[in-house]
Amino acid sequence: MTPSRHDIEAAAARIAPHIRRTPVMRMGGGDLALSVPLILKLELLQATGSFKPRGAFNRMLSAALPAAGVATASGGNHGAAVAYAARALGVKAEVFCPTGTPATKTDRIEGYGAILHKVGAAYDDARIASEARAAETGALVVHAYDQPEVLAGQGTVGMELQQDAPEATHVLVATGGGGLIGGIAAWYAGSGTRVISVEPEGCPTLATALREGRPVPCPVGGLAADSLGARQVGGLMFEVARHNVAEAVLVSDEAIRETQRRLWQALRLVAEPGGAAAMAALVSGAWVPPAGAKVAVVVCGSNTDPAKVV
Prior knowledge:
- The radius of gyration is 18 Å and the shape is globular.
- By secondary structure, it is of the alpha/beta class.
- Helix content is about 45%, strand content about 15%.
């Protein structure tokens, strides 16, 4: 069930009418107060403000959509993506979010026409409620990260990045439940490019899973918990990660906040905490590139209050 390159290429063709091919920007290190130049994949410019529509569209376009539509659970970004995709495809969507999901994200979900349910304190509470609702109504479940079609859709980020920046030797990716890094690592498998996972210290799901040899529940907290706050990584992505993710590093909330400031000051980009997490590994020194590395960073989300970034 691990997506192959063929699966990811098929996903790219399937979703092309509905998503944006986001730009790659090459930056000198001095522009961001870093010692190395960077290749930025600006996925925060994707429709809905995150990479999530790629997986949502691929899941929904790969299945027969029932009359009951779709149901999902989300910390916010995935819910907005599912709502956006459902509106584009003309089906009903019900989205279950934790009660603490920021208004910047829930407003988008409702703005795209989905029915929003606020349930529980954590993503897992919302997931359980969404799956119960789908069982009741017959809606198609669109998982935030642990479905083959979702992984393949997110893997199109890696496909585009390799096409547009073939020189990249290392790719830094933020990890929550693991759909994005799972798809990207599946694309780069066997290529020689090393994929590096970056997680907040308050949500160390993949680092813990790799240490324990299996996905296990972890604490959820910190600045980026609304987007990277899955309690554990998905089983599908873990099978990819254990073979194809080179390292898993952790970053502090302070490093994430500083990265948000640098992206704003240098590029006038508003990155949410989860979107800034990957670059925070360089800002903080949690990951130090080897000599000669050509480093790419996926900046994956922008759904935050701009006033909190300045």
